[in-house]
């Protein structure tokens, strides 16, 4: 059995070689010829899987994307060819939630503000949006949730409109899939008109898909709205962001919000479980067996945490300034956006860090995601 996997997919060999030969290829440049004799195709967000890519393949049984997003997959085409498909819902939701939360602490630190005084609007209250909500709730930050689809489905959480978020939130974090059709389409959800309406001093974070914000419009609006603070992990037209936009962004990264070791392992593992099911094979290993030890075994806390202390603690698991600095030095015309992603040293999630000596009043740290030392 021939298995083709994106070269940027950790743990693919470990998990899939029991089913056949694993060939790793660059995801962005995969061609129909490359995949013509694959039985299993494992991709990430940079490979468009459609009739052109699969034109020369008549034996493919399974396509898996080790990502949450599916906007790069023509699922109707796969169905028409009876090719099984799976994504990895929720695999890197914790990583994205923690990325957004820690970046809010960074912004608060940079501008001398208090995160707990802010209201954070979360647009898209699915896996990643809810992971962020969990961190914010644990820390005691007020949130507004906007998700008209979940609201229509009768979910018990309270939802507000996008207009109410724009009007009422000091911070807006985007967590929607990229959709181009339908009542709730998200392509250019934040267009020029909406960007202009952002509150004075608003913080805007995008860690879902670049095209959810009209990046041309954002570049124009930022010219006269310096008060808006931006965190962009995703960019319209990746891997070629609008370069004039970058200096106006407070924290800029190359689509790595979901890049935690745990998130990547979960993504590949979920596809492995799916293939085991498809081939009626037993699941022989577990995610925890794939994960390396964290370099700090535990942290002992001796006092109540200030906002800056919490930021310092979060920086032990992820210090965004390293990625931000590297991002600003990239030569985008030379495809270095992808080079940086490929070389990225995946960070850990808060759960990798065990905290000891915590008073009861600090139990919120465990709700946020850190691990508790076992008695
Ligand atoms: N930057 C990164 O590394 C990553 C980016 N992503 C992106 O984030 C997206 C969201 O991921 P999840 O939260 O796991 O997906 P999800 O499917 O669990 O949640 C998305 C939520 O957005 C809601 N939604 C859809 N249209 C909306 C609209 N117009 N307004 C408000 N809400 C709307 C849906 O009802 C759903 O609850 C993914 O589709 C992917 O594109 C995901 C993981 C990592
Ligand atoms: O899960 C998603 O959706 C994402 O955006 C991924 O985290 C992006 O990573 P790659 O698939 O492009 O490596």
From TrEMBL:
Residues noted as binding substrate in the record, renumbered to the chain: 45, 67, 259
InterPro entries the UniProt entry points to: D-isomer_2_OHA_DH_cat_dom, D-isomer_DH_CS, D-isomer_DH_NAD-bd, Erythronate-4-P_DHase, Erythronate-4-P_DHase_dimer, NAD(P)-bd_dom_sf, PdxB_dimer_sf
Domain D-isomer specific 2-hydroxyacid dehydrogenase NAD-binding, first and last residues per copy: 110-257
EC number: 1.1.1.290
One Pfam family, short name: 2-Hacid_dh_C
Chief place where the protein resides: cytoplasm
Keyword NAD recorded: yes
Positions of the catalytic residues: 209, 238, 255
Catalytic activities: 4-phospho-D-erythronate + NAD(+) = (R)-3-hydroxy-2-oxo-4-phosphooxybutanoate + NADH + H(+)
Residue span(s) of domain D-isomer specific 2-hydroxyacid dehydrogenase catalytic: 12-279
Pathway(s): Cofactor biosynthesis; pyridoxine 5'-phosphate biosynthesis; pyridoxine 5'-phosphate from D-erythrose 4-phosphate: step 2/5
GO molecular function, one term: protein dimerization activity
A GO cellular component entry from the record: cytosol
UniProtKB keywords: Cytoplasm, NAD, Oxidoreductase, Pyridoxine biosynthesis
GO biological process, one term: pyridoxine biosynthetic process
Keyword Repressor included in the entry's annotation: no
Erythronate-4-phosphate dehydrogenase dimerisation domain residues: 290-369
Subcellular locations according to the entry: Cytoplasm
Residues that hold NAD(+) according to the record: 147, 233, 258
Family per record: Belongs to the D-isomer specific 2-hydroxyacid dehydrogenase family. PdxB subfamily.
Function: Catalyzes the oxidation of erythronate-4-phosphate to 3-hydroxy-2-oxo-4-phosphonooxybutanoate.
HAMAP family xrefs: PdxB (MF_01825)
Subunit record text: Homodimer.
Protein name as it appears in the record: Erythronate-4-phosphate dehydrogenase
